[in-house]
Amino acid sequence: MTLSEDRDPSGKPAVPGNQNEGKAIRKAVALRYAPSEQKAPSVIAKGKGKVAEAIVDKAKENGIPVQEDASLVEVLSKLEIDQEIPAELYQLVAEVLSYIYRSDNRMKEMRQQERREL
Question: What is the pTM assigned to this prediction?
C-alpha cells in the first residue's frame, strides 16, 4: 500500500496556477500488513521527491493500489522503516486497507469477467 501527497516547500498544498506551481514535493509511504506475521501494519518504504516517485511507480507496476491522503502521509513519514504503526493510527490505516481490499475485489471481478468473455 502506498500513500502519497503533493506539497510545496512551505508545507501547503501545491495548487496549479499559483506561485508554488512546479515546486511540489511528492511524499510517499508504503505499508505492509501480514496479519499472520505481525499485529499491525508497518512502514516498509518512505521518501520524498524522486524516491517517492519511485515508490509510487513500483507500487503501480506491481498492481498495488495508491491512495492519496496528505494528513496520513505526514504522520506515517515520521515513523521509522520496519516500525509498526501506533494504535492511534489503526482507524485511519484501517480505512486505507478497506479501500485497497475493495479495489482488489473489483480488479478480481474485472479479470473474471474478461476471462468469461474470451
Answer: 0.69
